[in-house]
Write a structure and sequence with these properties.
By secondary structure, the protein is an alpha+beta fold. It has two helices and four strands. It is elongated, with a radius of gyration of 23 Å. The structure holds zinc ion (ZN).
């Protein structure tokens, strides 16, 4: 197995980690119910995606 010959300095380690960031996910609003949803994801509030009902919600399943 490859073994490193010298310990990396704190500066080099921190330079590498300078790009580590927490990204805030993009958020758009659902066209049918207006809740905030991630793009290209099913709306968790109403269960619709691209105008189609994709998920069966617990409240609708009990009504039927
Ligand atoms: Zn929705």
């Amino acid at each position: 197995m490859a073994t490193q010959k010298k310990k990396r300095t704190r500066m080099k380690r921190d330079q590498r980690r300078a790009h580590w960031k927490v990204e805030i996910p993009e958020v758009s609003s659902c066209p049918s119910c207006g809740a905030s949803v991630q793009p290209y994801h099913v709306c968790t509030a109403c269960g619709q995606y691209k105008g189609r009902q994709v998920l069966k919600l617990a409240t609708e399943a009990t009504a039927k």
